[in-house]
Amino acid sequence: MASNRNGFQRGSAKFDRPLKSRPRPSSPSPGSALRRPNAAARNGDAVPGRVRVAVRLRPRNAEEMMADADFADCVELQPELKRLKLRRNNWDSDTYEFDEVLTEFASQKRVYEVVAKPVVESVLDGYNGTVMAYGQTGTGKTFTLGRLGEVDASDRGIMVRSMEDIFADLSPDTDSVTVSYLQLYMETLQDLLNPANDNIPIVEDPRSGDVSMPGATLVEITDQHSFLELLRVGEANRIAANTKLNTESSRSHAMLMVHIKRSVLENEDMSSQNGDASHLTKPSKPLVRKSKLVVVDLAGSERVHKSGSEGHMLEEAKSINLSLSSLGKCINALAENNAHVPFRDSKLTRMLRDSFGGTARTSLIVTIGPSPRHRGETSSTILFGQRAMKVENMLKIKEEFDYKSLSRKLEIQLDKLIAENERQQKAFEDEVEKVNFEAQCRIAEVERNFADALEKERLKCQMEYMELVKELEQKLVLNQERHDCNSFVADNEEGPASSSTDDVAEVKMLLETERNRRKAAEEEVEHLKSQLGKHTQAEAGGDVEIIKLRNLLEDEANQKKRLEEEIILLRSQLLQLNFEADQMRRCLDGSSGSTYSAMDSSTTQVRHSQFKDVANGQKSSVATLFEQVGLQKILSLLESDDANVRIHAVKVVANLAAEEANQKRIVEAGGLTSLLMLLRRYEDETVRRVAAGAIANLAMNEANQELIMAEGGITLLSMTASDAEDPQTLRMVAGAIANLCGNGRY
Ligand SMILES: Nc1ncnc2c1ncn2[C@@H]1O[C@H](COP(=O)(O)OP(=O)(O)OP(=O)(O)O)[C@@H](O)[C@H]1O
């Protein structure tokens, strides 16, 4: 098996699974957040713990096999009796008892379990613990403590196995592990994880006795792999000097320090304090428990003269011996309960002050070789172990109030409480809203029910009242009949009056009162009704009167219009009659054949003169008509809806047109256009005939001739002629056309 000079095997790392955590009722299983302290920790009491010492015998090495081949081992072990016999000579030996006696065949696992495991468990419970190997150079101290077991996992030493157990038991969420690795070489304390740091102070707390090295590098480790890496770095930096006795000898004291912080809870039971059975408890106090495991691999304890050291090596050996002898003196003093223990004599004893006579649980393994040539060293080692067994420590847990953890916990609690409060607030508001809504519904329902009940009650009362009135009326009638009957009997028999007379009177009075009330109410209703009726009538009457007046006004207007038209008509008729009468008179006088028969082309001048005469004869009446009616009004009658009116109007216009003085005015007032319109409308023949006559009269004026033709007069006259049935019409049209053609001019 290949190994380096420090006894560490080379090769790839291969480890067993971590050892299963020991059952501890007071501790939660690995991974649980917090653990509770045991009774001793709660009380803060120290418990006695003697330094436990085991002896381990190294098997003969190759050199011893040869050199001591003819000699028996200097020790004889009785492991079952935990005894060791150190031979003085062939026939005599000294017997020593130890806490454990480990033969050369003891496995590394067994050595760990009997020497270190109880200390590791103590450390996990919160106590400080020390595992230390003491022995002559080359007897297996480093083998026992520092083997990494990279080639053969069963070779794993106490350091590796301890850390496996620690990791198996810690909770990564709440616990932490930090490691520092130091060596004390010639009274210089050096950091093996940072060799440049070689002046590390040793600080002792005078109150608690705790020892600390504040300048040492502290590396937090979270798994076994990183721990092994750290061990390798430390071992590589450890100084080892060859000696004549052992080529792989460690010339320094090495110290691995594992600091553990664990969170614990402590409940203070109020019921126990108050002496009652209340279940009230104070919230758990978060505590942090700090403990440390110190594994010390002391330098070889060989004697200077025997090691054959010289120069620096000699100084080195002297330094080692000095520190080890100081340790021995301290242990002696402690074993003998001396008042003074010379811890301050060396740095080694200052460093280990807590482990011997302090508060740590300490386990010492003393390693010995079998060779009789080193009997003296072996004896010295055994005696060192024997004295150490007498040292009593007082184990004490160190707990601190975990402010950080408490603050974290309180923050979480506060967040939870706030969230819970908000939730409850919301629930409360929802509940209030719900209750409110339900109350509103209930109130509405009650109101509805109340209104219904009230209505029912009212109807019921009304019915009862009606029935009561009815009943009273019946009673009244009945009583009246009885009274009449009684009166009749009384009158006849002169007997006493009926016994119910008073009742009847009372009922009567009641009935009378009710009647009066009803009558008053009915009168009131009637009064109101009549008022309403009057009011309505007044309103209606007013409207009717207005409408009537309007109608009357309209009638009056229509009447007036009709009368006006009638007057015009009558006047025109009168005019016409005069005109015809004149014509008739002239005919009778024999001055002419006929009025219109003479109106041919050859007689235009004659007719014209006749017309002139007629006109002269009628001058006064036409002038009167003009004055009384007005030309415009007469012309407007040409468009009257009444055919009769139109005929008379056109006749009047024709007559007016016969007067030369009127012709211009008629044309200017639009009379010509109206006359042509009558032709165009295919009026009845009489109208068209008279209109043609009127146009003929207007055509006598040269100024009008062009105008008549320009407005299509010739065409309209032609059309009238073509439709004419009465020869008089043809005559009128012919006269008009003749005038238009300017007969007067030719
Ligand atoms: N129990 C054992 N079984 C087998 N070999 C062992 C045993 N103990 C020690 N050895 C071997 O003995 C040699 C010396 O051991 P180790 O280096 O551990 O001694 P040491 O006490 O630490 O010496 P030093 O004080 O000089 O460092 C090593 O080769 C080691 O493998």
From TrEMBL:
* SMART domains reported for this sequence: ARM, KISc
> Matching Pfam families, A to Z?
Arm, Kinesin
Example of a GO biological process term: spindle elongation
Chief localisation class: cytoplasm
Its subcellular locations are:
Cytoplasm, Cytoskeleton
Report domain Kinesin motor positions: 50-391
Keywords, alphabetical: ATP-binding, Coiled coil, Cytoplasm, Cytoskeleton, Microtubule, Motor protein, Nucleotide-binding, Repeat
Coiled-coil stretches, from where to where? 407-471, 504-580
- Name assigned to this protein: Kinesin-like protein
